[in-house]
Amino acid sequence: MFELNNFFDNKNMKAIDKLGMFTVFEHERDLSVSPDSAVTAYFSSEMNVRRRQVYVTMQDSGCTVQAGAMQWMLGDVNMGSGIKGVGNLLGKMAASAVTKESAVKPEYSGTGVMMLEPTYRHLLLVDVSEWGSIVLDDGLFLACESTVQQKVVARSNVSSAVLGKEGLFNLSLTGNGIAVLESPVPKAELIEFELKNDVIKIDGNMAIAWSGSLEFTVEKAGKSLLGSAASGEGLVNVYRGSGKILMAPTA
Hints:
- There is one protein chain.
- The protein is built from four helices and 15 strands.
- With 251 residues, it is mainly beta.
- The chain has one domain: Double-stranded beta-helix (4-Layer Sandwich).
- Strands 1, 2, 3, 4, 5, 6, 8 and 11 form an eight-stranded antiparallel beta sheet that branches.
- The longest helix has 14 residues, at 86-99.
- The termini are far apart.
- Mean pLDDT is 86; it is low at 83-99 and 226-232.
């Protein structure tokens, strides 16, 4: 048995979101400041520049976490490497090289609690089953329940990666469970498009996550390359089919 003091009753920490085993806490103010940094800390808090952390509650369950993200764990919680032999390690290293994700993501299991390292990025809790399959932009993955499967997916054509500036490979999540994503913008600024056998064209790589069922290509904004250049739009990222897209319009 254990107790957490000055945690749930800490007036400077606020639970802002909860889904599954994950709870997102936000530090309302930075209290560890010096006279030289007090002004910066004050205005940072006023402008929503705050530290956020993920609190994980495990009841005979498990989760996978980005390497180096664990701050502390309490109770009967054990860590595994998630590596199942030399071949599996080589595969993970290859996937890491093309997706910019850590090669080894530790797996924690048991009964207890765990806190992840603080970050200034915005933390999104996503139910993977609602997407069927969700493809992530590089660097978005932070954690997921152990029931979520990870794999690397490649673009259907090279032009989509080179011209669309999205990368040739991306991390894809499937299965039933919750994932934690580190977003460059808060949830309030994200736009979610839900396509039903339709198409959307986005000028730039503002899509941070999208359904694996969507076809991604890069095309001219207009009917001709000359017309597209004259309009100042040039090439756009095009998503076709049925599925969802999360776009960060202010990133």
